[in-house]
DNA sequence: AACCACTGCTTGAACTCTCAACTAGTGGGT
DNA sequence: ACCCACTAGTTGAGAGTTCAAGCAGTGGTT
């Protein structure tokens, strides 16, 4: 923070901000608890299974999978290790690149996913879609789109700054 | 899940849902990383400090604080322990109820908060408010309100079911 | 006064996530 | 053929969260 002036939030912005954080933290916590309780896995793991289930052959390179579930490679690596221990996913070397690994959804994993899905979807519907009008759902989609769009430049900027920092550091 | 029919998401709902989760997970991750990097604390801890800073005397009972930041008592207990170790918060017995404890924001904690706030707020503004139009901000507020409203009954329902389960089990 | 269900908060263990190394393999220059 | 910077993925340690169990104090009942 070396901008000279912080643009603080107005009273109304504060209110929106807090309501928003409250609602969606609670919502996420709800989803996570439901899934942990009923299917013994956190939402993050569920989403890994979903992505794999939609992939051709139920297989994906670790890197692609990481992108799809928007998690760091490291996090994914740990997660897949855990899922492998549960027997839901198996890992094998990728062909074409001997560094690579592909994760594959096992039949047990697919079964677990099918078992978990109805409860999860029901929760999403009841807690998110049911309380909203159609226009609100549409608006939410557009809002999310806008925020996502505003996020991409941020990444690029971060990378650019990193480069700049390196350039300065290295003589 | 013993409802006979799961109300799956339509294609459009799917799209909204995924965009939403993507955008706001990324957004949250962003906030958290910024705060960890620049101020060495996760967003959850920052919010604890905020709540304390707004409380009369910078003091709050652990229970109230837990409500305010919407975390379990256990989580809060661990968090306050950590914040105490950093010297940002101190704990002392509540008077009137010898089980109780109150958390107090120390001067160091207040300073840390003031140091952290501008960077955090700037991030919120640039990543959330700036990309949205005024109407979208308003819509987001209403959406959050609706979702929050739809969450309260869920809690009550959960508690009711717990009671029901107990009633069945005992005897 | 002795009981007992309940509340307020803490604790420990298991689990997940983050961050910073680290290994191994790739591909382009020389 | 040999470098060397870069990419793919893993690992380990430490931080934070969850869940279930625990301790102590409270307040109503008998």
From TrEMBL, chains A, B:
Q: Which SUPFAM superfamilies match?
A: Winged helix' DNA-binding domain (SSF46785)
Q: Where is the HTH marR-type domain?
A: 13-149
Q: What is this protein called?
A: MarR family transcriptional regulator
Q: Name one GO biological process term.
A: response to stress
Q: Which SMART domains match?
A: HTH_MARR (SM00347)
Tell me which InterPro entries the record gives. HTH_MarR-typ, MarR/SlyA-like, WH-like_DNA-bd_sf, WH_DNA-bd_sf
Which GO molecular-function terms appear in the entry?
DNA-binding transcription factor activity
Task: Give the superkingdom in one word.
Answer: Bacteria
């Amino acid at each position: 923070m070396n901008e000279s002036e912080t643009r603080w939030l107005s009273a109304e912005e504060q209110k929106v901000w807090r309501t928003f954080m409250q609602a969606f933290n609670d919502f996420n916590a709800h989803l996570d608890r439901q899934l942990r309780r009923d299917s013994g896995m956190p939402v993050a793991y569920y989403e890994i299974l979903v992505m794999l289930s939609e992939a051709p052959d139920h297989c994906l390179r670790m890197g692609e999978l990481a992108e799809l579930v928007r998690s760091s490679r490291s996090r994914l690596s740990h997660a897949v290790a855990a899922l492998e221990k549960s027997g839901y996913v198996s890992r094998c070397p990728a062909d074409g690149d001997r560094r690579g690994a592909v994760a594959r959804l096992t039949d047990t994993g697919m079964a677990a996913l099918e078992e978990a899905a109805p409860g999860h979807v029901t929760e999403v519907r009841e807690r998110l879609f049911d309380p909203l009008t159609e226009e609100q759902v549409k608006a939410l989609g557009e809002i999310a789109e806008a925020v996502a769009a505003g996020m991409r430049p941020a990444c690029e900027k971060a990378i650019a700054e990193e480069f700049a920092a390196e350039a300065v550091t290295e003589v």
